[in-house]
Amino acid sequence: MAKILVIDDEKTIRDAIRDILEYEGYEIDEAKDGQQGLEMVTSGKYDIALCDIKMPKLDGLELLQKAREEGVTTQFVMVSAFGNVENAVEATKRGAFDFITKPPDLNRLLVTVRNAIEKSNDTEVIKTLKKRVYKINEIVGESPLIEKVKDTIDKVAPTDARILITGPNGSGKEMVAKQIHEKSNRHKRPLIEVNCAAIPSELIESELFGHEKGAFTSAIKQRLGKFELADNGTLFLDEIGDMSLSAQAKVLRALQENKITRVGGEKEIKINVRIIAATNKDLKKEIAAGNFREDLYHRLNVIPIYVPPLSERREDIPLLAEKFLQDIAEEYGDQLKTFQPAAIEHLKGLPWTGNVRELRNVVERLVIMCGQEITVDEVKLYAGLGL
């Protein structure tokens, strides 16, 4: 049952709305002024707040703004006897779902409430999914090396400093980038990922900067590049060591001037993007070999983060294996399995050339192939398949 808060200084209006909505099966609470409404909406869990604009102590628009600043996700429907365009526009700017006039038309009120409830449900689903994604991308471990990584993330995430993440394949560089974005002030804006190694060199510039219609044979329409899509958010350049020199020059210019130009275009487009780059290569060796620009390296390497291979943090393997057991059980909708202590010890001694990614794959294989308690003999039998 949806829970609705009616905020209005007129008792007759509150009573009328309560009668209508309770008849429809909704649970109703009331607040007699803006201050009481703010206290209730920030401390309670409401799907919708039907909120008057002109009220004593705190008007509805101020209430809405303060509620949003407090992180309240309740859908606000603003109600006012003054149904002018200015109020409606201002309410929308501050995050209101809709705006209706007094006295509210019965059909319009019920339709608006139903639509707001659907939006509220969608918001809750998105929040749940975000929590799940955050859990999936959680950096697990208590070793000194991984604690250093987590500490660095906490320090640099709230800034806009550029970050260069290094480490071998499968060690978790992408996970570090996602954690930085989630903990940054840009977390409500997109994190756009580009795998520089997976895009042919002749297409990388179009991928990054976009192109105008007719810029080349297959450019049948205008396309926005990753820099524009990441505006006010974060752009993650994975495997940047594989980027062509010509693309590196344009990326350097974009970082220097905060402007880009689409392929085939002349107009300069302002951008506000935080750059996180990652590579499994030794960029200093690539610079010496003439494969990577030194000036770009220094632009990117404001904050270096080294993600160690699993072989350098074996004490984290029991925690990682336990997390993967839980994640896989949730994915498969199956009962949680366990490892024998000897099985965990054997896992700790394996070489793990594929790092955390390989460990995850091995745990999934063991969950599929083994019984409720995974034994050391089963680990010896099945873990070796990927090593």
Automatic annotation (TrEMBL):
> Which first-to-last residue range defines the signal peptide?
none
Domain annotation Sigma-54 factor interaction: ranges: 139-368
Query: Domain Response regulatory: where?
Result: 3-117
Recorded hits in PROSITE patterns, A to Z, give: RESPONSE_REGULATORY, SIGMA54_INTERACT_2, SIGMA54_INTERACT_4
List residues modified as 4-aspartylphosphate.
D52
A GO MF annotation of the entry reads: ATP binding
Xref: Gene3D superfamilies: 1.10.8.60, 3.40.50.2300, P-loop containing nucleotide triphosphate hydrolases
Tell me which species this is from: Leadbetterella byssophila (strain DSM 17132 / JCM 16389 / KACC 11308 / NBRC 106382 / 4M15)
The UniProt keywords, alphabetically, are: ATP-binding, Nucleotide-binding, Phosphoprotein
- Any GO BP: phosphorelay signal transduction system
Task: State the name under which the record lists this protein.
Answer: Two component, sigma54 specific, transcriptional regulator, Fis family
Query: PANTHER family, from UniProt?
Result: TRANSCRIPTIONAL REGULATOR (NTRC FAMILY), TRANSCRIPTIONAL REGULATORY PROTEIN
Task: Please give the superkingdom of this protein's source.
Answer: Bacteria
Q: What residue ranges are annotated as transmembrane?
A: none
Q: List the InterPro entries.
A: AAA+_ATPase, AAA_lid_NorR, CheY-like_superfamily, P-loop_NTPase, Sig_transdc_resp-reg_receiver, Sigma_54_int, Sigma_54_int_dom_ATP-bd_2
